[in-house]
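Justification of computing resources. Each target in the renewal requires a structure prediction run like the one illustrated here; the chain below, 678 residues long, is used simply to show the kind of job we budget for.
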Amino acid sequence: RRAIGTAAASAASPQVARRPCPAECADAAASSGSFPLAALAAGPYVGIASFLDARSLGRADVACRLLRGLNDQPTGPWHTMGEQTFFGMELDVVGGFQPFEQARTLGGNRSEDSWKARCALFRRSTPTFSAPFNGSEISHVDNPDEVAYCRCRLRTDLLDARPDRGVYIEVDVRSNVDNLSLAVVDFEGGGRSSVTFSPETGAVLRERKVREAPRAIEGTAMELHWDILLLVAIVLHIYLAPFTKVEESFNLQAVHDALVHGTDLASWDHLQFPGAVPRTFLGALFASALAWPAPGFFHCSGLALLTAVRLAVGICSWASHVRLRAVVSRTWGVPEARALGLLTALQFHLPFYMSRTLPNIFSLQLATLAHAELLGLALLGVAAAVFRCDLLVLIVTFFTAAFVTARAAALGAAASVAIDSVNGFVAALALAGDWGTHPALWYFYSALPRALLGALPLLVVGVLFERRARGPAAAALAFVALYSLLPHKELRFIFPAIPLLNAAAAAGAARCLRWKGLLKVLATLALLGLGVGTAFATAVMTVASSANYPGGVAMKGLHALEPPTSPALSVHIGNLAATSGVSRFSQERRDWRYSKEEGLSKDGLASRGFDRLLTEWPEVAGYRCVAAARGFETLAVQKWSWPPLSVVKVPRVFVLAKSADGATVPCSPENNYSDLEA
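Resulting structure tokens:
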């Protein structure tokens, strides 16, 4: 032990001699009680030498050499670690480890003979907490560019204690914050952490929080405000744009019917308007199950119930993104996770659509979870088989085990077929071109810049300077490239790629903040500019998009204009109104008859005798104009005023009432009618 202490005392020297010791050195050491550094046997080094300074490298050299010598003895520390488990950094008064017997560590008198079983039981029964630690006895060595993204700490001053207390070398594995300090220091394998254990040369090191010496805790649980920021953005978009578009109608009507009509399938909207493409009901049933307390306990109806449904869908989308951000924090670091949360919250498209009942959003929720899970391809298989088959393109780009995906996809498809009978995809039915086409590179020069906004230049920085960002970015861009082969293109089709691209952009932002000197100052100013520009662009797009629902505004205004005691009315919903905000949630009067009969001309409407019309025509024979709902027309630049851009709205949907005397009163400036706005 005196020899060990001598070696440890000399460990602070930056250079360590590596000359082999002649045989007489050992005899001299045995007789004198000293042990020169040159006498240390040669052995493998901890695989962290490439990013240690000279002083720390000297300590690592001494520690590894001495440890190899101790392991040659029957009572070496790494031979006994299988029986005694040490809680790392739980220091006693003199700075040594406090050992615990295996039985007490693992709980009760339970013990396992197999080292694998011991480790599994240990992981289940031992609490952990996150880093960093604050203390002068720890040497912090950080290198974000290291392949494993580890933070290593060395302890060599423990060598003057008992040999069975060992040499403490802790590796913080950034790839798993739940087991942040669970590491196997395997000196035979170069000292790298691993999830495979060697009972002869490996040791499980685990840390826990000690009440007597509380330490700084840093982790995802302490930074929930970055996630709350995205949730606030989602709720704000629901408030500013509460209505829905025709793309959401299938799932939205199904959610309404499941909540209102239940098992009365004859009343479901799907029987009257099945749509052009058969789709699954699984997403709608899931959303209705989440929103069931709204009508069941709070007796919500109409637009209030629609808001509850969108909140439920939005919270699910938000939760999947929270999981992704947590994994980014664990694998890449806290700055990257912060940047991911801020970038996503400032953008327009993801927060705007996260609460909408689109099949793309249901698949986005599973795809985002899949990005965050090691075995996430199973979730991708379910999302592809049930909601969006185009996700198969994303699966192909991931180079993972096909049988896992195939099994999950088969289970998802079986459930979908059992409920829906038919499951299709637009591209498979060769109907994509019927809804318009775009050039092959449209996603890259139009859709992605609008979706990413300020994250686009950061994505370039991440791909160029961060190796870890290249894999997710390559997978996402490959998905977009393959999906560009389809003629019909919409931004929502590439939603599953946006979280991956945002993560790569977050890595680029964190990289900018790690630059030094003037470059860091310039990068910080650039990041602030990108953030302000993104927020401004999002505000403009939010205001413009909220004006795109004149049908919903007209329907809401119609119910507000009619007193609650008015007799039952028949209302015809025109094509523009039906596709710009009208849904079954907005049909608040149960005693009214709502019709969406298609293909009617002006004369046809007049001959049907409807009491009220929601139409894009400002004049119909025998009807008088009651109100007009304004919708988006264009953006106008305002000089010398704030804001510099304004949204120009024009009448889009007109509310017409049947004249008692058969007179025709058009919606014109000289006539007095209500001007409806969202």
